[in-house]
């Protein structure tokens, strides 16, 4: 019975957040079309709505740890579900994402990604995608901010091992900026697929920055070690053992 009740609450929660997405998008559109600040306010307002409703509808409390950077940096984050996107974006003052090109065709999300100058790449053409990523990032320097890349390239379920893609290392070398790793446990409570949401504390944690100047191999090794170790620690905090996943 408890499972059935939580599933029903989860269904209603998921339904309302997707129902509210175009409402927020349309409500802020007159401002967002002419101002990146308007687009950011819209996305952050919607995210805070999701956090608030998640707390009382399904028992998920969102918590940001560490110090979110305010300067021009590269953010290399662990990605487990839609929730970590909203939490990281809301914690940063002027963030934009490196994202799959296909997302630009997603209603509301795609339009606002364009307004925020997110960098879209074609993952089907790896070498060309990396070159275009670097070029697009350089051309976007007219507005300093925090560039977010998901180093594994996609959502990865808790406990599942997946390679860290070379694109993060290329950006680190080309941009010459500090890189702030971000760990998370959100996928334990809010999975990448399905309806069920579990109660608990969903955390994204900003870790100590990796300063520029390392060679690519050393940087990637440090990044992966820090993010994976902290993410495993955060998952264990809420009762999930990542080592138990085969």
Topology:
Layout: H1 2-32, H2 36-57, E1 60-65, E2 73-77, H3 82-91, E3 95-100, H4 109-115, E4 119-121, H5 126-139, E5 146-150, H6 166-175, E6 179-184, H7 186-189, E7 200-206, H8 216-237
Parallel strand pairs: 1-7, 2-5, 2-6, 3-4, 3-5
Antiparallel strand pairs: 6-7
Give an overview of the whole structure.
The protein is of the alpha/beta class and 246 residues long. 49% of the residues lie in helices and 15% in strands. It has eight helices and seven strands; from the N terminus they run H-H-E-E-H-E-H-E-H-E-H-E-H-E-H. Strands 1-7-6-2-5-3-4 form a seven-stranded mixed β-sheet, with helices on both faces. Helix 2 (36-57) crosses helix 3 (82-91), helix 5 runs parallel beside helix 6 and helix 6 crosses helix 8 (216-237). The longest helix is centred in the N-terminal third of the chain and has 31 residues, at 2-32.
Biggest sheet architecture: 7 strands, mixed
Counted by DSSP, the helix tally is: 8
Give the termini separation: 29 Å
**Spans where pLDDT lies below 50 across 5 or more residues:** none
Report the β-strand fraction as a percent range: 15-25%
Q: Helix and strand string, N-terminal first?
A: HHEEHEHEHEHEHEH
Shape: globular
Total beta-strand segments: 7
Average pLDDT taken over every residue: 92
